Structures are given as C-alpha cells and as structure tokens.
Amino acid sequence: MTYTPKSDFLATVQARGFIADCTDYQSLDEAMVKGVVPGYIGYDATAASLHVGHLMNIMLLRWFQKLGGKPITLMGGGTTKVGDPSFRSDERPLLDAQQIDANIDGMGRVFARYLDYGDSPSGALMLNNAEWLDGLNYLDFLRDIGRHFSVNRMLSFESVKSRLDREQSLSFLEFNYMILQAYDFLELNRRYGCLVQMGGSDQWGNIVNGIDLTRRVIDKQIYGLTTPLLTTSDGRKMGKSANGATWLNDQMMSPYEFWQFWRNTTDDDVGRFLKLYTELPLDECNRLGALGGSEINAAKIILANEVTMLLHGTEAAQTAEATAREVFENGGVGDDLPTLDLTAEEIGSGISIVQLMVRAGLVASGKEAKRLIADNGARLDDAPLTDAGLVLDAAALATPIKLSAGRKRHALVRLA
C-alpha cells in the first residue's frame, strides 16, 4: 500500500499489519476524516463460538470503533441457511433455525468483550440478516437483484473457480450465497448508511459484488477492505492447535488453555501477534518482538496476558499466568488447569490411563495417547508415564492426578 492515510483508523491498521487490500484507499480515508463511518463484518452462525481465526477481524472492528468508525457485527441468520462455499471442498452441513439462533447467542457474548454496543454515535450495532433475507419474494428478488449478476463473472471468482477446477460439486444453493452477501451490503447501506465492508481476503469477490450491486441499484459509492489470511511462521492456519480450534467462549475453552495457546507462540510470530492482537504501542510491540534467547519468553507472557485480558478480563489473565508458573516453574498442580471430573459410576471397576488422556482433551485419540506414552512424552504427576495399560480405580483418583502431554499441555483428573 503506497497511499499514506490521513485518518487515524487507516494509519493505525496499516502500521499494525491489518490491511491486505482496499477498493479505494483515498476515498475511504477521506470519508473517515470527515466523520463517523458505519462499517461491517459478517459472521455466519456455523458454530457455537467464534475462534482465534476470527480474532484479527474482531480486533479490526475494535480499532475501527476506537478511531472514528461505527462497527456493525452482522450475524448471518439468513445466509447460514445457505452456507458460504468460498474455498471449501464440500458443502457446509445445513443447520436448523434453533441451532442458528443458539450459535448467534454464543457469538454475541464474544463481541460484547471487544465492542461497545452503547447509544453513542460510534456505538456498535449487532444485526441479523434474517431480518431482510427471510422475507424475500423469490421472483421479485430474481427480477430486481439477480439481473445485475453475470454468471460468467461469478464463475471467474477464485473462491468458486478453485472448487470447480478440482471438479468438486458446487450446489445451486451455495452459488446463491454471493448474491445474498452482496444484497446484505446494499441493505446495510440503505438502512444504516454503511459505507465499508471488511473481511478476510478470501471474501474479496463477495465484497466487490456488493459494491457493484449497490452502485447499480441505488448509485451509491461504498468500499471494501480486506485483511490478510494469517498463518503462523511454521505454516499452520491461525487458530488451530493440536486439539482443534482455539475457541473464544470460555464454555468451550478455559481461560487458562486460551492463555497457554498464546504463551506457546513461536518466537518469530511474537512481534506480529502483539501488533494484531493487543493494543500495546507499536514501539513496544517491535521491542518485545526483537528480543532473543530466553528473553523472548517474557514477551510471550506479555502477549498471552494482553490477549487473555481483552477476552476474559484481567483477573482471568493473572490467574492463568499464576497457574502456568506453578505448573512449569514449581512442578505444582495449579488452580486453573483444565479439569476432568469423573463420578465413581463412570470409573466403575477402573478406567484406563489412555482413556483419561483422551477424555481430558490432551490427545485426539487412544492411538495418539499410546504413541505419546511410547515416545516418553506423557507424564503422570510429573513422573514419566511408561505403561499404556495402566488402569486407575476410584480410590486412585480420590486425590486429583495431573496428566501431561509433552511439556505444555496439562490437565487434572479428579473424583467428582
């Protein structure tokens, strides 16, 4: 990006690494300088929680609100019924209305940690596109909106083309998704004066469709801004851990596990993640990211504390750090470790150590647990665990035990 922004928002997010592309930097920048600009990101309700892969765009909305924008979190109550086919190899499973509503409730609790939904001019709005999509008349929609879309052009978008090039089926239902998302942008401009849609760079085609549709239907200029698709320095997709997604709802991942995810950041990612996921000044992010040797571990603790504090609060971050120190430095148990509570009935005449490791979430399968034990990577109460056939009864679990997978994953198992 060669354009030098004048608005605080674009200058800040450019410097911190949030921008992949923008449809018109200068015009959007001028609009941001003039006053409060409404802008949105859409989220389909495909799971009960958002995960770390969503966090960069949530932080973008947070900066947007702090620096002159009015953020709109658009829940896909309507579009979730169709499913975004972008860069997927198969069709998403269809959810019923009750599950979609439950997922929206779970996602809303996350947004409330990062955005202010108050009544100020920059107060955030949480909207649901089912409000206008559920009542559409199909024939009217085809005549008034569908006629503006070229199938030839839609087929040229990389998100669709990649699916077809692999000769993987793309249903007519999914093909409609990009038209519905474009219509969202048009409706948000009509109803709320929304001027910019933001999203990951995989959404570029959908965003451009909305801009083009709005120009054709109501002759309004609106903008798109995308963030880079983020991978870690070792090539993994951001947000994925050894045990699956890193969830943002504490019912699905404890604050300690969330904190530990960030503490385990690779050295090369620390500076970049501090810029994207915290509000520390840029100079401090650069200083911490440049530390080497054992000093980089202090920077990782700061990263973990800052990110956890934004999501779960200061007390949760402090407790997580204290637990980690007790577990790693002092060889103790710690009060905030993930805990598996078992009843005597569940244990019965005995339960295998392999099953305990799976149920505690330390491994994905019994096969993985056995391999870890064989490779001397498992520990029981900080002592090497060498017997994959070990069976524990209720008496053995009367005192909580600590299971470890490698040096960084730990859990307690106790009798409820």
From TrEMBL:
Sequence positions that bind ATP: K240
Keywords linked to the UniProt accession: Aminoacyl-tRNA synthetase, ATP-binding, Cytoplasm, Ligase, Nucleotide-binding, Protein biosynthesis, RNA-binding
Positions occupied by motif 'HIGH' region: 45-54
Reactions it catalyzes: tRNA(Tyr) + L-tyrosine + ATP = L-tyrosyl-tRNA(Tyr) + AMP + diphosphate + H(+)
GO cellular component: cytosol
Localisation: Cytoplasm
PROSITE patterns xref list: S4 (PS50889)
Top-level division of the source organism's lineage: Bacteria
InterPro entries to which the protein is assigned, alphabetical: aa-tRNA-synth_Ic (IPR002305), Rossmann-like_a/b/a_fold (IPR014729), S4_RNA-bd_sf (IPR036986), Tyr-tRNA-ligase (IPR002307), Tyr-tRNA-ligase_bac-type (IPR024088), Tyr-tRNA-ligase_bac_1 (IPR024107)
Signal peptide range: none
UniProt cross-references to SUPFAM superfamilies, sorted A to Z: Alpha-L RNA-binding motif, Nucleotidylyl transferase
Pfam families cross-referenced by the UniProt entry: tRNA-synt_1b
Chain residues that bind L-tyrosine: Y40, Y177, Q181
Subunit structure: Homodimer.
Name of this chain's protein: Tyrosine--tRNA ligase
High-level lineage: Bacteria, Pseudomonadati, Pseudomonadota, Alphaproteobacteria, Rhodobacterales
